[in-house]
Amino acid sequence: MAVALQMTPLLMLLASVASAWGTHSRTRRDRTDLLNVCMDAKHHKTRPGPEDKLHDQCTPWKKNACCSANTSQELHKDTSLLYNFNWDHCGQMEAKCKRHFIQDSCLYECSPNLGPWIRQVDQSWRKERFLDVPLCREDCQSWWEDCRTSHTCKTNWQKGWNWTSGMNECPVKAACHTFEFYFPTPAALCEGLWDHAYKVSNYSRGSGRCIQMWFDPAHGNPNEEVARFYAEAMSRAAPRGHGPLLFCLVPLLLLWLLG
Ligand SMILES: *[C@@H]1O[C@H](CO)[C@@H](O)[C@H](O)[C@H]1NC(C)=O
Ligand SMILES: *[C@@H]1O[C@H](CO)[C@@H](O)[C@H](O)[C@H]1NC(C)=O
Ligand SMILES: *[C@@H]1O[C@H](CO)[C@@H](O)[C@H](O)[C@H]1NC(C)=O
Questions:
Q1: In angstroms, rounded to a whole number, what is the distance separating the alpha carbons of residues 63 and 54?
Q2: Signal peptide span per the entry (predicted)?
């Protein structure tokens, strides 16, 4: 009994040292790990690489992509086999609107430059997601303008659908209205839609400080520089591991063991 009681603080100490090490190695994606990486999700390749057969709107990524040619082709289809997601859940989505959703899907599936915004999640269909990717303000603005007259029934498209038919349908209580009704501002659309995958940036296209959904590959991929900038900023801001904590704990542990 006495021994057990005495052991408790020692075990606690050991546990905290172990968890300090654990957190240290788990959260510290160092800078190279944030650059040129693919997310661990349903259709992403493990590593980015050249894909010369990328389809239509995804071709800007062909020099270096996380998507396969098949994925890029599939995501251009209505209710593609990738997610069985139906854009036309409130009647036909206008073509000028749909192209933004296709471009958003290309960025999601193909971009190797979103490493700084990858977060772990506990979802059946993916282990990681994007959070608060700083989308260039004009890309969000034109998405919103081209979609305001199309129709939908929900503000968060990530959850709450009726999937009984095998594809997403509006739940009975969710009425179809214009995009503008559900998304009164560009930010409401770009940030709400995929549960904060994007954050609308105050920076403009070409600034090197925001992610472009649309770009002309003739001038390279502008998002490479953006990822480098944020990866560097994050590694400067991140705590330098748990060195100081271990320095305090290890002598304590020794004292305990010797004493
Ligand atoms: C293309 O992708 C779809 C959806 O993941 C899959 O069902 C199909 O088998 C794939 N086709 C090829 C040729 O890999
Ligand atoms: C889901 O859709 C089915 C038809 O596909 C319908 O019978 C059912 O009532 C719907 N449920 C909800 C909660 O909307
Ligand atoms: C965003 O940028 C504009 C001009 O580029 C500036 O006037 C405005 O204050 C900025 N807003 C924020 C929240 O930084």
A1: 10
A2: 1-22
